[in-house]
From TrEMBL:
It is a multi-pass membrane protein. This is Dolichyl-phosphate-mannose-protein mannosyltransferase. It comes from Natrinema hispanicum. The keyword Ribosomal protein does not apply. It is found in: Cell membrane. GO terms for molecular function: pentosyltransferase activity. The chain crosses the membrane at residues 12-32, 39-57, 77-96, 103-121, 127-147, 206-225, 252-274, 281-299, 305-329, 341-361, 418-435, 447-470, 476-493, 500-521. GO terms for biological process: lipid biosynthetic process. GO terms for cellular component: plasma membrane. Keywords: Cell membrane, Glycosyltransferase, Membrane, Transferase, Transmembrane, Transmembrane helix.
Length: 657
């Protein structure tokens, strides 16, 4: 085999320098793993280093790359039928078992592997993009609606608040019903669900699933449309699959809140933005971009901030190509079409101004939303900011952190994040490809900078104790540019590496990525695969019935009417069901000393506290997972005022007064 020398590869070429720089950065960050147990600090340097090494190797092997082995035509023709049979199984299993079980997730992993296997290993003659997209959309639809169908009530925590807001709008037939809530300034989600309920003449739950719920699986096609503006069809389909299988993307398809609808509008805006950069656009194209940005602002505040980050990335990309080192004459027209950078100054200024205006008028905590957020951010900088200050993540940590973790406790974080890390590795490879001077252009640099900025908010700021921006909400948005860049990265490696190495990389991705995303906790919050490590963010019929009965029993008093000693205590997340639905507004997480009993007067015990991962707090306020016995929360000296066999409410005994 002939290997090119570094001099022959022009070491001053930006992609080569970036790959070497990335490798050095990974080596420099590697020792941080010995200073903290934070999962990303331990894993991201390894992923970055691996991606850079593979890219450098692809530069050496580029001239000798041979055709990658493909599947026989008979196998390629049979696989779609196998996938649809598997999808049928994904429909039947939840109906028979009453929930999404481990068998369901195992089958979903296999189906996902078969879909990605078709995309990367089928030859060009047997590649049918429309059929592959149908499989992806059907998978997304079945995977999400299996959870929605088998779960009584709703999945998640915030959804119960939004349900109450929609109900208030329907009751008063006016948006003024939520005039004291921060969503008054971004009401599009609530108005859409309320309008759907009236239009279809169905309850709020059904209206939600028939409106936003139906849109979520279909919205993945926007990723295909975006990627297809940049690369060939095969890799556009791959980007769609990478995005549709994402754990955080699935999360907002089953926990359907304004973030979900904001994500849909964000994907549409990303497509419109890349489109105006890739075509000779008209005023109609720019008007669509403007309309979508307004829709995001009127839907969700966090989505709006993420959109502003995207627009900032696009604006900086514009500056790079106007005054930076990337001259248009250096563009390789065989890769990207030479086109003058799009001027986005007006769009950025308009959206920033409208956002500030709307947030200034939005009520939040007796102040405006803008004022409250700035106050929170300032307080965070003063109180908890500091390098490697990840201590505040212990909100969901066990109190006994000094004890050696079990093997399962060590493995679960890696399983939860493996899919993201695989996608991140391919994204790094894609970023290295597009920084080549002859390939660089505004659209791909917008994606690169947007992904980089989002990673700063998701991974960078939390390293310094700054979590004001709610980083967990960003992942699904980040996955969009990552899926596009990841597909470009895998396309690059497939065309440059030796066939044996290509097959190894693609096989690892096809076998590990779907399963990792399916098993990650965000994909199965209503029935976690690792139920002793993750809380179940859904409730069964008896738990929902108990909340309603306790509301009737107590008369659902207002928070002001409840004395501090009458506050209701139960586990997290069950306590959120009472407070967010108004069943008993003054409800919080129970304090249970390790090995001891709760000292509260008003408590609620449910059997899940003894069998599943539920949270209580120590006397110092630290949250921990604990398997409680009934007597630890409902003491023998208390009176039982309600029980349905699964949930019990206890109050002070009259005999003890």
């Amino acid at each position: 085999m002939k290997y090119s020398s570094l001099s022959e590869l022009r070491p001053l070429r930006l992609d080569t320098v970036a790959a070497i720089g990335g490798l050095l950065l990974a080596l420099a960050l590697f020792p941080l793993r010995f200073l903290t147990s934070q999962i990303y600090i331990k894993t991201v340097p390894v992923i970055l280093g691996t991606a850079c090494v593979l890219y450098i190797v692809s530069l050496y092997q580029r001239d000798d790359a041979r055709a990658v082995p493909t599947l026989p035509s008979s196998v390629s023709m049979a696989l779609p039928s196998v996938v649809f049979v598997g999808l049928s199984g994904l429909v039947v299993l939840p109906v028979l078992q009453g929930e999404r079980t481990l068998a369901f997730f195992g089958l979903a992993s296999v189906v996902g592997t078969l879909v990605i296997g078709q995309i990367v290993f089928v030859n060009d003659r047997d590649l049918h993009p429309g059929l592959l997209l149908l499989q992806i959309v059907c998978f997304a639809f079945v995977f999400r609606f299996a959870a929605l169908y088998t779960t009584p009530g709703y999945i998640g925590i915030d959804i119960w608040t939004h349900r109450e807001l929609v109900d208030a709008i329907l009751t008063e037939q006016s948006l003024s019903a939520i005039s004291d809530n921060k969503h008054y300034g971004s009401p599009f989600y609530h108005l859409l669900v309320a309008a759907s309920s009236l239009l279809y003449d169905v309850p709020i739950r059904a209206a939600l699933y028939l409106s936003v719920g139906l849109v979520m699986p279909i919205s993945v096609l926007l990723v295909y449309a975006t990627t297809n503006l940049l690369v060939s069809t095969r890799w556009a389909v791959l980007a769609t699959a990478l995005y549709a299988f994402g754990n955080h993307v699935a999360r907002w398809g089953i926990h359907i809140i304004p973030t979900s609808l904001g994500l849909v509008f964000f994907l549409a805006m990303l497509y419109a933005l890349i489109r105006v950069m890739r075509i000779e656009y008209t005023i109609r194209d720019f008007a669509l971009l403007l309309l979508l940005s307004i829709a995001v602002i009127l839907t969700h505040q966090v989505s709006t901030f993420i959109m502003l980050v995207l627009l900032l990335a696009a604006f900086i990309a514009q500056l790079v190509f106007v005054i930076g080192p990337f001259g248009l004459t250096r563009l390789d027209t065989s890769v990207f079409r030479t086109k003058k950078p799009v001027n986005l100054v007006g769009l950025v200024v308009f959206n920033l101004g409208l956002t500030i205006f709307v947030w200034s008028l939005t009520p939040y905590n007796q102040d405006s939303f803008l004022g409250t957020v700035l106050s929170y951010f300032t307080q965070t900088l003063e109180d908890s900011a500091g390098f490697l200050n990840t201590a505040s993540e212990s909100e969901t940590a066990k109190a006994g952190a000094e004890a050696a973790p079990t093997l399962l406790e060590q493995v679960v974080p890696y399983v939860d994040n493996l899919g993201f890390l695989l996608l991140l590795g391919s994204t790094f490879a894609g970023c290295l490809y597009v920084v080549h001077r002859r390939r660089a252009e505004q659209s791909v640099f917008t994606l690169l900078l947007a992904a980089a900025f989002m990673l700063v908010f998701i991974l960078g700021f939390p390293m310094f104790g700054i979590r004001t921006f709610i980083p967990t909400r960003w992942f699904a948005f980040l996955y969009a540019p990552m899926a596009v860049l990841g597909a470009i990265g895998l396309r690059t490696l497939r065309g440059s590496l030796r066939p044996s190495l290509v097959v190894a990389v693609l096989l690892i991705g096809a076998l590990a990525y779907p399963g990792a995303m399916v098993l990650a906790v965000e994909s199965n919050v209503e029935n976690p695969v690792f139920s002793d490590q993750h809380e179940r963010l859904a409730y069964d019929e008896t738990e929902l019935a108990a909340a309603e009965s306790i509301a009737e029993l107590t008369g659902s008093p207002d928070g002001e009417e409840i004395r501090p000693d009458q506050q209701l205590h139960t586990d997290h997340p069950y306590q959120t069901l009472f407070s967010r639905t108004g069943a008993y507004p003054s409800t919080t997480t129970a304090t249970v000393p390790e090995g001891g009993v709760a000292a509260h007067d008003y408590t609620v015990y449910r059997s899940a506290q003894s069998t599943e991962a539920t949270y209580v707090t120590d006397t110092d306020g630290t949250a921990r997972i604990e398997d409680l016995s009934p007597t630890q929360l409902c003491r023998p000296d208390q009176a039982t005022v309600y029980t349905n066999g699964d949930v019990t409410m206890c109050t002070p005994s009259p005999a003890g007064r």
